[in-house]
């Protein structure tokens, strides 16, 4: 139940940021892992120069983040903190990836680790600090 609540909170935050309906269940899904076990999936979008996760507070637990590059250039998502450092491969415009992390209580940075002619994407606004409780 706790995992489902964390996915709903993250999906609701993304829905608000993207102008979506908070009751849109298409933003929440599960994917099977071990027999009889499923893990929640939440969606986020990367754009020039932002990360579409408007909630800076999330509950602890395992979460698969479905990343969509909604921008016009290569982007990636890195999650770093509390002993975790995981990232997606660089994504072409419109490409998708999934990143599964087990978020323990504490502070994390979500950012794009790429650099282009404009500079480091994180320095241009693609950096978010979140607190996991």
Topology overview:
Layout lengths: L1 H16 L11 E4 L5 E10 L2 E2 L5 E2 L2 E9 L8 E4 L2 E4 L8 E8 L2 E6 L3 E2 L2 E2 L6 E6 L1
Parallel strand pairs: 2-5, 4-12
Antiparallel strand pairs: 1-2, 2-3, 5-8, 6-7, 6-9, 9-12, 10-11
In short:
The chain is mainly β and 133 residues long.
Keywords:
12 strands; Immunoglobulin-like; globular; 5-stranded mixed beta sheet; single chain; mainly beta; 133 residues; 1 helix
CATH superfamily: Cupredoxins -  blue copper proteins
What would you call the structural class? mainly beta
N/C terminus separation: 15 Å
Q: Would you give the CATH topology?
A: Immunoglobulin-like
Please tally the helical runs, counting DSSP H or I stretches of 4 or more residues. 1
Shape: globular
Gyration radius from CA atoms, angstroms:
14 Å
Give the low-pLDDT segments: 1-37
Tell me the helix content.
10-25%
Total domain count: 1
Beta content = 35-45%
Second CATH tier, the architecture: Sandwich
Would you state the CATH class? Mainly Beta
How many beta-strand runs? 12
